[in-house]
Amino acid sequence: MKRRVAIIAAIVLVIAVIAFAIPRRDEDIAVFKVEPTKFQRRVTAEGNLKAVNATPLAAPHDAPGPLKVSWIADEGTLLHKGDVIVRFDPTDFENLLLDGNEAHSTAANKLTKAETDAGTTRTNLKRDARQAQNELDTARKFKFDDAEIFSKYQRIESEVDEGLAGDKKQHAENVLGVRNSLAKAEHDLLSIEDRKAGLKIRNAQQGLKSLELVTPYDGILVLNRDWRGEVPRVGTTAWPGMPLGEIPDLASMKAEVFVLEADAAGLAVDKKATVSLESAPGVAYQGKITQVDKLARPRVRNVPVQYFGVTISLDKTDPKVMKPGTRVRAVLDVEDRDDAFAIPRQALFEKEGKKLVYRRKGSQFEAVPVEIASATAGRVVVTKGLTKNDEIALVDPTADKTK
Q: 249: number of CA atoms within 13 Å, CB side?
């Protein structure tokens, strides 16, 4: 029995060796016949609905600095005119007001002290100048210059007294001028400090008046999402004029979706799109692309996958089911060709940087350079190099035929 099994196995092995040893003929290679056909390429995307027209809600433009959210209404809240949407934390402005008042009081006290000291110094110097003038007048009135009456020593002493009185007067006047200049400079510096304190107070008071954001009219609140898809929340820092949300007009909606960067080739304005709501998947709404982002960007923080943002205008809006923020799924018609030469991807080869197909010529195949346009997972559109009824190889006929 074992001998019979061994013989059978040997026969099978010989047959297999013979089969692989027979050269493959070009006639045995599978081919694809080129025919013009309709080629469509569609990509899917996900996103949300957004109102075409909406009144933006932004942090107060006249706020003197960044604002920190201390309370914010929930998204989707039905608002009435005058309702508070956001409250901001007053702590920073209260501290700024306190610092400004303290700085203002300090500057005012320093100004008062400086003016008092300057007045006292000015009075003393004027008194010294008057005293020196009196001494000078006395020295000139009782001048000992008669050589027949006064001795030489008395005459010299009289001249020295007169010169000293004049110098004292000149010195007092010079010091008074310097002191006046110094007092003015000190007053100007303290006035600058006082103006800085006043600026702090005004900024703080202006900030305290900008602590609430109210709705201008009735509507539904829709909060803005950042590039990570997050909405403003308690603790969020808002800069003056920063958009926080909007009150949409529900009569006209659009879809904002995201397309993978790898699928974005061919995206363009006016391409057709079909949108379905996650809440009503059985209903499709037609539309077209109105905007495509210039650059791809990530949607999730720390995830390197990038997407292109695409805006789709809808031909019809159904306010009963379409609400801002509703999740949607879109199918975008990226390419639609009526008479395209769409060949199987495995029939396209690349050698030495050139894209080739092998076209049957008689009983053999010849390499033909081709130009391609777009492709799907299984098909490639050839725009140059092939004609109708060409037969192209689905495997490389130049490969080793014994393999």
A: 6
